[in-house]
């Protein structure tokens, strides 16, 4: 594949996959040597600019100027790190410096220039300097040093000819390799691709990460994120319990470099990284489900309600914690990335008032406290997140409002996100949670079944939300307004 992309090939997107490394002791030491050499490059640039700052000279921040200083230093200055890997560190510093300068010119004076030293810096190699063969990657080294051969945990999920760069980094106590590929936008046979004229509304939330509605035929999609919310809650409970258990054995502030302290911090980082990987994977699954539904419906434009305005409003200690765990920015980034790969446009609109507007008669109503919205004007009843999605679908970027053809009259498809999370299976119980201890010692006796219900009794669970009539496929429910 050529080093420069051919414009005639069409639009492309860049995707990155993080893959773990399976290394021997010698390979691990060489990888850490490369990362430490990257930290030395970063420290050298900081020291040079500190000299310029003390003398009142202009700082050296441009990428060509930094590359000139690297060339003048000569080969072998930074151990086994080659010039391509060292230039990636210089590129990172240049981008960080100019980004901070632009933000300070915009009035954000609290933003600081990059002046903090780092022991380990990620190293990136671009196309033509490395070789990927199945599960083995050959990384370049300095002149006179043998190349670094590393083995991957899994195969690269992209075609070999599309890989554009690899990045060696250390995160959460483990060495990783980020593989970035250049993928073309999906193409479809004539008459089967997304139609730009078909618009669907998407409502973002915590319990339901995505609630999508297609006004053309009244169909909808609900993706449940209760497993993600349970993962956040259990992770918080585990963190509190771990801190209470280690509070008695925690070293004093003067002993922060002890072996016990390092072991405790390493364990905390491993657990935190595992939690982030689980939630990130669940968000990717939910977004893939939404994009697949949009491609099946031939939807070319997703109108997404942007709720970031509510993040700055104080709503109490508990609700502020929910908003902090929402990861709204990551959700929008994943949605835009996967939609671009599928050839679908994403428009962000203001979602204010969508949860308190009837999608059938467009009258203002009080926001429901539960999951069911009932309109006193037209007697509409349905899921409030889907109702908000139908209202969002009528909004455009300019603020204009259109009237949907068939609001809330089709089949609603229900899906779940995070099936890989603990406790998301049929048992609905997290294996990390221990069984409750009895209050009194001794056996509680044999478990006896519950008494039978009287003949003719009925469940008290309300059934007016998402009635399961006229089911056509597994996981689908019809939704007809009352």
Average pLDDT over all residues: 82
Percent strand: 15-25%
How does the helix and strand content classify structurally? alpha+beta
Kindly give the count of domains. 2
Number of helices: 8
Domain Cas12f1-like TNB: 331-392
Biased composition (Polar residues): 397-406, 473-482
Region (Disordered): 239-265, 397-482
Domain Probable transposase IS891/IS1136/IS1341: 190-309
Describe, in plain words, how this protein is organized in 3D.
This protein has 482 residues and is α+β, with helices and mostly antiparallel strands. The chain folds into two domains: 7-184, no CATH class; 195-247 and 271-428 and 474-478, no CATH class. 33% of the residues lie in helices and 20% in strands. Strands 2-6-7-1-5-4-3 form a seven-stranded antiparallel beta sheet. A hairpin with a 6-residue loop joins strand 13 and strand 14 (381-383). Helix 1 (25-55) packs across helix 3 (83-105) and helix 2 runs antiparallel to helix 3 (83-105). It is globular.
Layout of SSEs?
Elements: E1 12-22, H1 25-55, H2 63-73, H3 83-105, E2 123-126, E3 131-133, E4 136-139, E5 148-152, E6 163-171, E7 174-184, E8 195-204, E9 210-214, E10 219-224, H4 226-247, H5 259-296, E11 299-306, H6 317-325, H7 328-342, E12 345-350, E13 372-374, E14 381-383, H8 384-393, E15 411-416, E16 476-478
């Amino acid at each position: 594949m050529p080093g420069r992309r051919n414009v005639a090939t069409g639009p492309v997107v860049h995707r990155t996959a993080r893959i773990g490394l399976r290394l021997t002791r010698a390979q691990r030491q060489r990888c850490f040597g490369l990362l430490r050499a990257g930290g030395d490059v970063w420290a050298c640039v900081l020291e040079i600019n500190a000299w310029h700052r003390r003398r009142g000279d202009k700082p050296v921040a441009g990428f060509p100027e930094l590359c000139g200083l690297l060339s003048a230093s000569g080969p072998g200055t930074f151990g086994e790190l080659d010039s391509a890997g060292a230039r990636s560190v210089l590129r990172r510093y240049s981008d960080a410096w100019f980004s901070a300068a632009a933000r300070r010119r915009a009035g954000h004076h609290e933003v600081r220039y990059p002046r903090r030293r780092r022991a380990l810096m990620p190293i990136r190699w671009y196309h033509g300097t490395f070789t990927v063969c199945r599960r083995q990657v050959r990384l370049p080294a300095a002149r006179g040093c043998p190349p670094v051969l590393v083995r991957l945990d899994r195969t690269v999920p992209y075609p070999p000819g599309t890989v554009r760069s690899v990045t060696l980094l250390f995160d959460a106590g483990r060495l990783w390799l980020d593989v970035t590929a250049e993928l073309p936008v999906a193409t479809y046979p004539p008459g089967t691709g997304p139609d730009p004229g078909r618009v669907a509304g998407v409502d973002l939330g915590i319990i339901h990460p995505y609630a999508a509605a297609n006004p053309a035929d009244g169909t909808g999609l609900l993706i449940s994120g209760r497993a993600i919310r349970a993962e956040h809650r259990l992770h918080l409970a585990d963190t509190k319990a771990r801190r209470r258990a280690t509070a008695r054995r925690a070293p004093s502030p003067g002993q922060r470099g002890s072996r016990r302290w390092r072991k405790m911090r390493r364990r905390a980082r491993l657990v935190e990284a595992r939690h982030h990987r689980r939630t990130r994977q669940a968000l990717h699954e939910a977004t893939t489900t939404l994009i697949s539904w949009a491609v099946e419906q031939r939807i070319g434009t997703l109108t997404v309600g942007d709720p970031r305005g509510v993040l700055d409003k104080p709503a109490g200690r508990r609700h502020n914690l929910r908003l902090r765990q929402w990861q709204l920015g990551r959700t929008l980034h994943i949605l835009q990335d996967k939609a671009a790969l599928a050839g679908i446009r994403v428009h962000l609109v203001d979602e204010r008032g969508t949860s308190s507007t009837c999608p059938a008669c467009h009258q203002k109503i009080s926001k429901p406290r539960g999951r069911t919205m009932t309109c006193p004007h037209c007697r509409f009843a349905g899921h409030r997140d889907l109702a908000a999605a139908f209202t969002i679908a009528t909004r455009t970027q300019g603020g204009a409002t259109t009237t949907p053809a068939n609001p809330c009259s089709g089949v609603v498809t229900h899906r779940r996100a995070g099936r890989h999370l603990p406790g998301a299976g049929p048992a609905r119980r997290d294996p990390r949670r221990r069984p409750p201890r009895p209050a009194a010692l001794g056996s509680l006796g044999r478990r006896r079944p519950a008494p039978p219900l009287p003949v003719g009794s009925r469940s008290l669970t309300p059934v007016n939300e998402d009635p399961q009539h006229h089911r056509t496929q597994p996981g689908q429910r019809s939704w007809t307004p009352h």
